Each structure stands twice: as structure tokens, then as C-alpha cells.
Amino acid sequence: MNVVDSVASQVLAQDAGSGFDWGGFTFVTVTSLIAIALLIVVTAVFGFRLGRHNVVDVSWGIGFVVIALVSAVFGDGDLWRRWLLAALIAVWGLRLAWHMARRGRGRGEDPRYEKMLDDAGGNRTRAAIRKIYFTQGIALWFVSLPVQVSAVTQGPLGVLTVVGILLWVTGFTFESVGDAQMSAFKADPANRGTIMNRGLWGWTRHPNYFGDACIWWGIFLISAQTWPGVLTVLSPVAMTYFLVYATGARRLERHMAERPGYPDYQESTSYFLPRPPRR
Q: Are 132 and 116 a contacting pair, CB within 8 Å?
């Protein structure tokens, strides 16, 4: 028993030295799960009532803002880091939610969700709950783990924080400018039936998804400034996987593949990472 007590004391001392509060983290993460569950339930009710599940795209950005605010308010970690992350995520998440709401106004279901439910077969209601709403709720919680961990971690802001902010700025620029360029392109009747290959869209076929990835790697770096934030590296990895392979770029590419001019666009423009267009 003396050996066990000694080991336990050393572990507790290490946790205390790292400035990480396991009890505080448990409270923050459970509260975040409850808040996200409520948001997803409300979103699902609206989705089924409207007959289209792309409303979940609006709640995606809002969900991260909710978790960031819960973490900032209920966390007991470094005050500056908590509210820095809350501010960065609020700016990104609210802009994204507004953009998705404006883009989806007056339109029907997203073809990607239609195909997802068609491929699932069986009961579409159950498939929507499982594959769209439940999956998004879990993804929101997991991707935001760096924010939750930072909320209960003590330690100074440092070089990684600065690099993280710069990466966030890069990502936000790519996403917001890319979305604005695409909106302006679609608003011009002269562009109907053509492929957007100008501006940032000439450097990467998915500047908005690339920007999202940069934002969450930046958030991770800010969290990784202090232990054990570095252990949340799987969160930005998961977000990047969603954006590149699971529900983002690859699914959109399949939808766009048969449009006239898109194969040529694929040949001349980078898939994800920006680079000068090929001739």
C-alpha cells in the first residue's frame, strides 16, 4: 500500500505541477456535451420540420461557439488563453453560421445529404439521426477538445500561441475570402454554367476547407503551449480528415465530377493545399 500511495502521490504532484485540473476538465466537458446535445436536438427538430437536414450546417459553427463559451466561463485555467480561444472561435463560428444560413435560404436539401441518406437505405429518419445529427454532435465535442483542455490549464502564452494565432488568421482569410469570392461568382448571371477558377479558387479547389483546417491546427497550437494540450493532436487530425475525405472535399468532388469543365479544373488546380495553378 505504501508503494501505491507513493505512486499516486507522484501522479497527483505531476498533474498539479502541469497546472491541469482533472475535476475541472470533467465538469467542462460534461457541460459541453449537455449543451451540444440540446443544440443538436433543437437543430434536428427544425430539420425534420423543414424537411431538409442541411440546417445542421448552420449549427456546426454555432456548436463550437457554445463549447468555447462554456469552456471560458466554467474553466479555471489561464484567463487570457480561455478568452483568446473563445474570441477566435466566436469570430470564426458566427461568420460560418451566418454564411451557411444565407447560402441555404430558399434552397432545398443539400444533394450530399440526400445521397448520404439514399446510400444508408432503410428508415431515413433513423439514418438522419444517426448519420447526420448524432455524428455531428460527437464530432463537435471531439474536435473542440483542445479548447476544453486549455480551459483548465495554467501556463504562460508563448511562441506556439503566436504561431497558432497566425495560422488561425491564415485559415480565416482563406475561408472568408474564398466564400466571398464564390458568392460573388454565383451572383453574376454571366457565370452560370461555368466553373469558378479565379482568386483563391485558382490556387486550391477548396480554399474554405483548407482555411477550416488551418483554423483548427491554429487552435491546437495555442492549446499545445502547455501540457497536456499537446495530447489533443487527434482533434485537428480528425477535423482535417472530415474536411478532406469524409464529409467535405471528397464528397463535393463526387457531386461536381460530371459538371462540364470540372475535369479540366481538376487538372489545373490543386486539390487541397494551395499552389499556383498549372497551365
A: yes
Query: 3-state secondary structure string, 128-154?
Result: HHHHHHHHHHHHHHHHCHHHHHHCCEC
Query: Could you tell me how many residues make up the chain?
Result: 279
Cβ atoms within 10 Å of 214's Cβ, excluding its own: 22
Instruction: Pick the closest to residue 201 from 215, 187, 181 (CA basis).
Output: 181
Question: Please, what are the averages of pLDDT over each run of 10 residues along the chain (279 residues)?
Answer: 40 46 93 97 93 91 97 94 97 96 80 79 84 93 96 91 98 97 93 92 96 97 93 96 89 86 92 89
75 three-state secondary structure: coil
Measure the N-to-C terminal CA separation of the chain; round to a whole number of Å.
72
Half-sphere exposure of 265 (CA within 13 A, CB side): 21
Cα 172–chain centre separation: 12
Could you give the C-alpha distances from 65 to 141, 264, 271, in angstroms and in order?
11, 38, 29
Whole-prediction pTM value? 0.88
Alpha carbon distance 253, 249 (integer Å): 6
